[in-house]
Design brief:
The complex is a heterodimer. Chain A is mostly helical. Chain A has helices at 3-7, 25-43, 66-88, 92-111, 116-147, 152-155, 162-179, 185-189, 197-222, and strands at residues 12-16, 19-23, 49-52, 59-62. By secondary structure, chain B is an all-alpha fold. Classes of the chains: A mainly alpha, B mainly alpha. At the A-B interface, α1, α2, β3, α8 and α9 of A face α3, α4, α5 and α6 of B.
Chain lengths: 223, 286
């Protein structure tokens, strides 16, 4: 399966040995969008979350403390850069590394929050992410063992074998668990109750975009 | 130069046609519920009116995210017009555009600091299930046609006939997405009336104008995509008839169906997606 069929006209390639980074309108669009969001995260203040107080007739304001703000902003920016990298990489192993990094950073972004329900949710998501790192890297390793390469450029020209399909299925399980999409999103939704809107958006954005990129990669490898 | 003019004309058409179709949708809903309803042109007039209204920003808002996220939404759907009607490029980009729409729902809600927006934000995470019908439909179209370029899919249909006849269940899935996207939908959990207007609650003045403009363009792009993907290269007249017909059908469904609670909404969408996906796979390979 060629890149053009999936992502539109090939705009250019950047070869590093057998690993070839390629740019199609699809990859470029996702890459640029992630960089724009990362920039906005870096320059934005956090909101003041207003909640009704129990028993009393007044509101409770929830803010993000200064120390927590710096920590979460740093992790969110790194998460944005890692997600952007996953959008243009031409190497299967790089993709799995970016994916694992995004999973860790997603937990890190909410780990400084002092809300029990949020931390519980992050803990459960962390367990799933840890368990799914095995099929994620295992799948990539099986594809490497079966084909001798991790370059998407070369993999896209190879015939599909049962071992490649098996490796891709393992990777799919890994990506789904690491990004916490359906059916695992229920554990993740609670994480979004915390204040810090610019930071928690990257958790959602990185997961959705990595899933879309994973679709392209699986079609490249399997078809 | 020609491309720029093409983009500009298509964006204006998308805005005007989308606004009128949403106005028609609202009128149909009103008539079904035995109300007179506003004129069809009302949605367009509202959108334009908000650009000239006084704008105010909550002091609790996350700046500049609160403002910029709305511009991102407008730009993203303009990209949708460029990728769809103008250049007929990759379906994966449309998928990404829809994903960003979900992100905007999420962040526009949470960045204001309002509890209604925040609840809409959490529901936006749950309603990521609406992506499943789109993803599954795209995958099935790919299995059938061997390409994800809209121009390639159109060429396939001009040779083999419209996809609606060969993979009708994939069309049902994409129609579910259209239904989800339509105003007052049973699946529109992020804009439930228990949340006032959900993620839009704290956006006033020109920001609401941009939101409404983006919604109009989005509706037009989604309808165009559905008709082109399943009915192939059709004339402008049939395109208009198709868009009006879908707006009327969704209006009728929304007028007679109550809004589902978040869990039921997600499970219904996943069930429709699963049944249609398996059904289509069986139809393709058996």
């Amino acid at each position: 399966m060629s890149f053009e069929v999936l992502g539109g006209n090939l705009l250019g390639t950047i070869p590093f040995g057998d690993i070839v980074l390629y740019l199609t309108p699809f990859n470029l669009f996702m890459f640029v969008v992630l960089l724009i969001f990362t920039f906005l995260i870096a320059v934005s203040k956090t909101e003041t979350q207003v909640e009704a107080s129990l028993v009393k007739l007044e509101n409770t304001n929830k803010n993000v403390g200064k120390k927590e703000f710096h920590q979460r902003r740093f992790l969110a920016v790194i998460c944005g850069i890692a997600s952007a990298g996953a959008m243009i990489t031409g190497d299967l192993f790089d993709f799995t590394l970016f994916m694992a990094l995004v999973g860790i950073l997603n937990i890190g972004i909410v780990s400084a929050v002092r809300q029990v329900s949020v931390l519980n949710s992050a803990f459960h998501y962390g367990l799933i992410a840890m368990m799914c790192s095995l099929p994620l890297f295992g799948g990539a390793a099986i594809i490497l063992a079966a084909t001798g390469t991790l370059s998407l450029d070369i993999l896209s020209t190879m015939h599909t074998t049962p071992m490649i399909i098996f490796g891709a299925l393992l990777m799919l399980i890994g990506v789904i668990g690491e990004s916490g999409v359906a059916p695992f999103f229920a554990t993740k939704a609670e994480m979004f109750r915390t204040p810090g809107s610019p930071f928690i958006i990257i958790i959602h954005l990185s997961s959705l975009f990595i899933i879309i990129r994973a679709v392209e990669i699986f079609l490249l490898v399997l078809m | 130069m020609y491309l720029m003019a093409d983009i500009l004309i298509n964006v204006i058409i998308a805005f005007l046609a989308g606004s009128l179709l949403l106005g028609l949708h609202r009128k149909i809903m009103a008539r079904v519920q035995l109300r007179p309803g506003p004129p069809v042109i009302q949605y367009l007039l509202h959108s334009l009116k908000f650009f000239f209204k006084e704008s105010s920003f909550p002091k609790t808002a996350s700046m500049p995210f609160y403002v910029s996220i709305i511009f991102i939404l407008a730009v993203v759907w303009i990209v949708g017009v460029i990728v769809g009607p103008v250049t007929e490029n990759s379906l994966l980009i449309i998928f990404a555009v829809y994903a960003i729409y979900k992100i905007v729902e999420h962040n526009a809600g949470s960045s204001s600091g309002s509890p209604y927006g925040k609840m809409s934000c959490v529901r936006a995470v749950l309603s990521a299930a609406t992506e499943l019908p789109l993803f599954a439909a795209i995958a099935l179209i790919y299995f059938k046609t061997g390409t994800l370029n809209i121009s390639g899919i159109l060429m396939y249909q001009s040779i083999h006939g419209p996809l609606i006849s060969s993979i009708p269940l994939a069309a049902v899935m994409l129609f579910t997405l259209l239904l989800t996207k339509s105003p007052y939908s049973p699946f529109a959990i992020t804009k439930g009336k228990d949340l006032v207007t959900g993620f839009e609650t704290e956006h006033f003045g020109f920001l609401r104008g941009f939101l409404m403009m983006s919604e109009s363009i989005a509706w037009y792009v989604m309808l165009w995509l559905f008709l082109v993907l399943f009915f192939g290269p059709i004339s402008i007249i049939w395109l208009v008839i198709g868009m009006v017909l879908i707006s009327v059908i969704t209006g009728f469904i929304n007028a007679t169906t109550p809004m589902l609670n978040p869990n039921h909404s997600v499970m219904t969408q996943i069930t429709i997606c699963f049944v249609c996906f398996v059904g289509t796979i069986v139809m393709i390979f058996i």
